[in-house]
Write a structure and sequence with these properties.
globular; alpha/beta; Uridine Diphospho-n-acetylenolpyruvylglucosamine Reductase, domain 3; 5-stranded mixed beta sheet; 3 domains; Uridine Diphospho-n-acetylenolpyruvylglucosamine Reductase, domain 2; 349 residues; 10 helices; 5-stranded antiparallel beta sheet
Length: 349
């Protein structure tokens, strides 16, 4: 039986009085990209700058704990009832474009999805530079936090400044140079109760290309994704922040080192002398071998994607705790060599 936490009554009253959108008793199996997890008692979706400021100010004044999420596309919450208020800003998604003398300035609200943002820049404005990001499911704010990149497109390449709220509800604006942007990391990671509001980008006018050229770039990305990335089963994308997980985990032990060199050698032969269908079958075969040695998926509906060992898929389960257990065991098997890109939230009240 679903119930309302008494501690959230004053928050609910505030949300109703200010007309800020929220939902109660949200099942994560319907929201999460992994289709597993517990239930959010209260899920808040402010859609304007003023609503975000009012909401965070109220939470700070009343000493509420809260948790900020993006598109729930790379995060796993534990099973059971989660009483902590959840804030999602995906409705805060406006874009403003201004043409300058030598560049095109884009001011984007960070609740916009990466897919929508990259599509808008690529298709609507005919600007090259973000084609490789099409297909990433998260929000712009989350992409900046993790300094996302894909297929030679980097969210930070044309980034100029970022506007955010810190844990004290103070609005801060920093330049790209001060954001500590490194491979899959930034100043914003592990910052408590931080909300990225807006980001400013500048694209040089030389990036304006014919639509057919940009379309070709996008089609190449889509084709490659269809071969090497999971599309059928629920998943949270890349498990670990790495350019080549096969190589990185080969440093963990002799078995994984042997597997890596065997996988690399046979892949080169297949690419040179065969077709894509055989390559896909070969990758499926090797995922099974890796799964055996990593002890993943044997007795669980959660298993590695048959396209890559860097993705956990859900083959029909709502039990997020089981997925969390498997991921932590995976980390142990590879001696914690790689930074986890999926976010695990199993200690939330």
């Amino acid at each position: 039986m679903y119930f309302e936490n008494k501690d959230n009554k004053s928050l609910i009253s505030f949300l109703e009085n200010t007309n800020i959108t929220f939902e109660k008793n949200i099942e994560l199996k319907k929201k999460s990209w992994l289709k597993a997890g517990g239930m959010f008692e209260i899920y808040i979706q402010p859609s304007t700058y003023n609503d975000i400021i009012k909401l965070v100010s109220f939470l700070k004044e009343k000493n509420y704990n809260y948790y900020v999420v993006g598109n729930l596309s790379n995060i796993i919450f534990r099973d059971g009832l989660i009483k902590t208020p959840i804030i999602n800003i995906k409705k805060y998604d406006k874009i403003t474009v201004n043409e300058l003398e030598n560049s095109i300035k884009v001011d984007a609200c960070c609740g916009i999805s990466i897919y929508k943002f990259a599509n808008y820049i690529s298709y609507k404005k005919n600007i090259t530079g973000l084609e490789g990001l099409i297909g990433i499911p998260g929000l712009l704010g989350g992409a900046i936090v993790m300094n996302a990149s894909s297929y030679d497109s980097y969210i930070s390449e044309y980034l100029k400044e970022i506007n955010f709220l810190n844990k004290d509800c103070e609005e801060v604006k920093i330049r790209k140079e001060d954001a500590q942007l490194e491979w899959r990391s930034s100043f914003f990671q592990n910052k408590e109760k931080l909300i990225i509001l807006n980001a400013v980008f500048e694209f040089p006018k030389k990036n304006l290309l014919e639509n057919n050229i940009i379309n070709r770039n996008i089609e190449k990305v889509k084709k490659h994704r269809s071969i090497f990335q999971e599309k059928k089963l629920p998943n949270l994308g890349s498990l670990f922040a790495t350019k080549n997980l096969y190589y990185d985990i080969s440093k963990s032990n002799l078995t994984l080192k042997i597997l890596y060199f065997l996988h690399k050698f046979l892949t080169k032969i297949i690419i040179r002398f065969s077709n894509e269908n055989l390559l896909i079958k070969f990758r499926k075969f090797f995922v099974k071998i890796y799964s055996y040695f990593l002890d993943i998926g044997k007795d669980s509906p959660f298993k590695l994607s048959d396209r890559t060992i860097n993705c956990l898929v859900n083959n029909n389960s709502e039990n997020a705790n089981e997925a969390i257990k498997i991921i932590k065991n995976y980390q142990k098997k590879i001696n914690y060599k790689q930074k986890l890109e999926n976010i695990i939230v199993d200690d939330i009240i």
